[in-house]
Amino acid sequence: MMQAGRITISRREVSIVLGLAGAVMVLTTLPYLRALQMANPGDYFAGFIWGVDDGNVYLSWIRQAAEGSWLLGNQYTAAPQDPHFFNVFLLALGRFCALTGLAPIIVFHLARVIGGIFLLYAFFLLVAELTPSRRVRLSAVVIAALSSGLGWFTYLQARGSGLPFGSWSGARPIDVAFGWQVQPEAVTFLSLLLNPLFVTAMGLLCLVFRYGLRAARPESGLRSTVICGLLLLLLGNIHSYDVFVAYSALLVWFVLAAVSRRLSWRAATARYALIALLGAGAPLWAYYAARADPAYLAKVQTPTHSAMPWDYALGYGLVLLLAIVGAVWVIRRRRSADDGVEESSGSALLFPLVWIVLGLGLIYLPASFQRKLIEGLHLPLCILAAVGLVRMHEWLRGRLSFGLLLVVTVLLTIPSNVVFVADCLDHVAVNNVDMLQYLMPPAYLTKAEKTALTWLAANAPDGALVFSSSLIGNHIPAHTSCRVVAGHWAETINFSSALRELGYFYWPGWDVDEREDILRRTNADFVVYGPQEKLVQQGMAAGGLLDPDATWDPTIGLPCLKLAFVGGDVRIYAVRN
Known about the structure:
Strand content: 5-15%
Radius of gyration: 26 Å
Shape: globular
Number of helices: 24
Number of strands: 9
Strand order of the largest sheet: 6-5-7-9-8
Structural class: mainly alpha
Helix content: 55-70%
């Protein structure tokens, strides 16, 4: 038996949770195996079914850490920088790569699988701090692991009508992506599917709250307070955005503990102050890093605005409705003990409600990164949804078994996840060419492109600047120590200006001197011309900027270029000073 606060959980229940977590992570791995199977002979699968642009940024940091860097730089910009980005999680993955010889993408997915299991187990431990109800605990984990919202309905309406996603109803739910945008931070299954950093951070957030809840109890000693603060420090280093909800939710909880006289004001203040002090190093370092490196600050200030409230409501769908049922019951019964749904203090299940209210407020803070503050909000909704489901079963008075009710609920909440995965594989099948308008990099590299990256890794000096399309430019830092003129919508400082330089270079209206001037302005050391650059030109032709029948090689006739590599249809030129 295991103790969670005053609540006892059995080893069998732990085994069920770990088994479920393992099964879910196997499920999330199947789309990647399918994408690998879909690759043409000789092609290299980059390892991402969605968000190739963001995925390669993580790989660039892991590769830097594997090569011995402690402070990680931004290889996606030509802007001057003084790197101060320090991230324990990425450093650990990089060191593991160096120790084992495994490729960064393999370690990335190993971390995703292990991190996913960690998240679901940490979430289970948090729920076990709130309720002795086994049904609530297990159903909360199931709902969190598999559920999404009603975005699938809007998606299918858009597909059926042939209209762009969102134009049929005006809504763009955050649980699906018709072509490009989705918020994996907002839905637990999408985080489990896509991102090891997100799931590890959310798991740490659950543990921060678990030990914070313990620290707010009168019988608690110093141990829980210290553990909470140290976990908060680690969380703030790994994913600094999560400290906003962590600090605010713990503050409100300790105030409530003092107001309800479970703690004296002195004890509540002292315990919260110690937690805040222990965790303060991470946000202070993040602030210092942003001030010390103008390029890092410029990236942080890239606007990422939150969706509209109805988009979040639709994106959570039935889970939100069940959570409202659970919240109403918790509020009504907050002062009374119950028959196995709420602990005897009668207050613990108010914590998910505190988390939700603060989380909804934080995502509309007047900050450039407000959208990122949604991370983890799905989890407290799932806790209250599980409470609501248990209440509904009791209201049905045995007319339907609880197991069947849970299965039906899950089946009604997974369609968006199925639609999302199917949509991802549709794009992967055409190598993301259908998302050229979003400049989404290819999911597969040809043998010639991979060979060219290997050549750059072996022959280009560290920090050499490569002029290429942003499509292949996004892949270059994941495999080499080179920087690129343009490669990522947020990491590349002044991305739109960099794209204009690329567009001018590839457009036939500019003469030799003007193209050479572009290379001098960008301080490029190498120029790549291959299938991705030709694809950009085809996009320009489709937009009426080029003759669709024209074949135009912008590298011809430039005396400043010296051919350095030829492999298939990819050429790399060194730029003479």
